[in-house]
Design goal:
Length: 344
């Protein structure tokens, strides 16, 4: 008889609601790194320092030179649906920042022991907010910190055993982290990056030109075997470098596509590239590319996936054609130039 009684509906406690959201945003240590780096970029940092211990299971520290968070906003920054980046629906239609959901810090802090230390320029000293992951309680204390922000994430998933089980060996998790940092660094050559793992320096890249950053991040010969693309059609542009005809790679890891500076995996874009490269490389070769597609923010929707891996283009056909045209043209032009040079 009890079976017919419907259970009472109740609101979930914030901690649990955040942990559920974390299931979508924080898949593994690399997703934490991605979210934190995007926050540093949105804060206009010109330098970002990353320290990882034990593949990120133990510790992730990101320190930036960005605008900082004032003392009275630290607690808010850690709560869900709290953001400084959008105000209304119009803003959502036209996203220009990396973040906008106001979920990352709340999600991460619900599944780790997190401390957020910040020193905005307008404040005379730094303050630190700490959470223990047990409830959403925050403690504030004064701290020492240069202008900017540090976020330290300890013991990721310590309170969510189901998630913790999916963590792979430190080496694997670190590879994912390194890949995320490389991608983001490629999209932001004007920011200096350092990455350390277990106290060892993995790389240190100063701010510089895009070409310098590509040379640092991609295979050492990447630029030698690539041709430059600089194409524009109405409001859509595609620029960067891609493998010349017959000069592909043995692996498919030299492939980077950015849409409005955001690294994404998009089927439509990949399809256009595959089509442009059809018959251009040996069967066992992959093209390499670093391509930046830019279009007005209101011509696409980034609010498709919690981790923002996907976009929707309002004029999908047009975007596809621009990419296909731009790459095909660049490949043929590069070949013609090469033949001319051999002829001379
Ligand atoms: P979102 O990035 O979607 O706004 P987050 O949870 O990632 O949501 O961050 C919440 C807010 O905290 C941001 O809107 C921003 O105001 C502030 N914030 C987070 N990280 C930083 C940082 N490194 N520097 C300055 N402000 C930050
Ligand atoms: Mg964010």
């Amino acid at each position: 008889q009890l079976d017919n009684v419907s259970p009472a509906i109740h609101l979930l406690p914030p901690q649990l609601a955040n942990q559920i959201a974390a299931g979508e945003v924080v898949e593994r240590p690399a997703s934490v790194v991605k979210e934190l780096l995007e926050n540093s970029i949105d804060a206009k940092a010109d330098s970002i320092h990353i320290e990882i211990d034990q593949g990120g299971h133990k510790r992730i520290l990101i320190r930036d030179t960005g605008s900082g968070i004032s003392k009275d906003q630290l607690e808010l920054a850690l709560s869900r649906h709290a953001t400084s980046k959008i105000y209304n629906l119009d803003d959502l239609e036209c996203i220009t920042s990396m973040g906008f959901r106001g979920e990352a810090l709340a999600s991460i802090s619900s599944v780790s022991r997190l401390s957020l230390t910040s020193h905005p320029e307008a404040q005379s000293e730094a303050w630190q907010a700490q959470t223990q992951g047990m409830d959403m309680a925050v403690t504030l204390s004064p701290a020492a910190h240069p202008i900017g922000t540090s976020i330290e994430v300890l013991d990721l998933f310590f309170n969510t055993p189901a998630r913790r089980k999916f963590l792979r060996a430190q080496k694997t998790e670190f590879q994912h982290i390194e890949q995320v940092v490389r991608r983001i660094a490629l999209g932001h050559p004007n920011i200096a990056f350092t990455l350390k793992h277990n106290g060892k320096l993995i790389f240190k890249w100063g701010a510089g030109t895009l070409e310098q950053r590509v040379a640092a991040v991609c295979s050492p010969n990447f630029l030698t075997y690539s041709t430059r693309i600089d194409y524009r059609h109405e409001q859509i542009s595609l620029s960067g470098w891609c493998s010349c005809i017959g000069q592909g790679w043995q692996t498919n890891d030299q492939q980077y596509i950015f849409v409005n500076q955001r690294m994404i995996k998009d089927k439509l874009v990949l399809h256009a590239l595959r089509q442009a490269y059809e018959g251009m490389l040996a069967d066992n070769q992959y093209p390499g590319y670093v391509l930046f597609l830019n279009l007005p923010a209101q011509d696409m929707d980034i609010n498709v996936h919690p981790a923002k891996h996907e976009v929707r283009f309002h004029q999908a056909r047009k975007v596809h054609d621009v990419i296909f045209q731009a790459v095909s043209q660049a490949l043929l032009l590069a070949q013609a130039k090469q033949e001319q040079a051999q002829h001379d």
